[in-house]
Design brief:
about 40% helix; alpha/beta; single chain
Amino acid sequence: MIPLMRNVFLKEEQTKKALADFILSTNRLSMGPKCTEFEKKFSDFQGSGRAMLFNSGGSANLALFQALMNLGRLKKGDKVGFSALTWSTNVMPLIQMGLVPVPVDVEPNTMNVSSEKLRERLETVDLKGLFITNALGFAGDLDRIRDLCDERGVLFLEDNCESLGTRLHAGQLGSFGHAASFSFYVAHHMSTVEGGMLCTRDEELSEMLRIVRANGWDRNLEKTEQEKWRATARVDDAFYAQFAFFDLGFNLRPTEITGFLGGYQIDFLPEALKLRQENYLWFEKIVERNDDYIPLNREHIAFIPSYSLSVICKSPEIREKTLRRFAELDVETRPIISGNMQVQPYYKKYVNETFELPGAEFIHDCGFYCGNYPELTDEDRETIRRALEG
């Protein structure tokens, strides 16, 4: 079988042995220096401001919106756009925070929101924020989307959980928005089993995120930051100050195991990204010469370490026929992310207004993907070719 993922870690055996040695030798497993070390390494790799480690990418998204609410950047009842083709943890925090989620349609040939689709939505809806998903290693024209958000006063945020390492000609994904989230869940570009990151250049937001991450207290702030928060809140009793809670938060802290794995795995990441791109470019040539499929547009993308090998068929009938071939050849497949988010059961329960989303609906009915990872062999690729070509 060719599964959606083959290994938990990059250089799996080496990583497992290193992890075992770390656990046996360390005297601390709660969040500490290994987490800080990984944050610094990731910040250097991403080049988009301060990095803060969380126990998952979904937790990072939740913390981001709580922090923005705490700071008054968003308030209950504000309408926030999101990519119609996305994952549940992009939308659930909006509902949980009392914000109003508004889907923005995607282009079938990029699987992502474009500036044109955003402009169409802004014609009828007054969005206060946009939480865009860079889907499966691809993206829309983020530079134009950023400019449009700046022009309209829309707070622009990125979920880059599936697109670590992708680079547009205009810049690195995860560096266009005011903040960006990342995930290190199993099968992502690098894995810490569970784990996520937020990056931002906004120091005020960074402080609030570290407060939100740890129950609302200031324990993980710099000393000068602590002094500022305590003075503002008039917390002048040193004995109780370390147990003062300054704003709404959760316990979303990672462990030192997460920090160790992240710091260890990131050293292998450039090689892994290169192999993912090689796999994708091979796959793209097969898709382009078959009239059953819609080639994905990557003219604006400079480096494409694709999360998956995504297939957009020209009709539901072609998809069913192609999925049967993949199943017969024992190649595991799945929908494009989770399809059109507007049709999910929880969404229909909590959100009343619906929108026409022809792009997301088309991908929902006609798209699927199989796995892309560094361990794909020549034999695996030949099997996938046969499944595509019939």
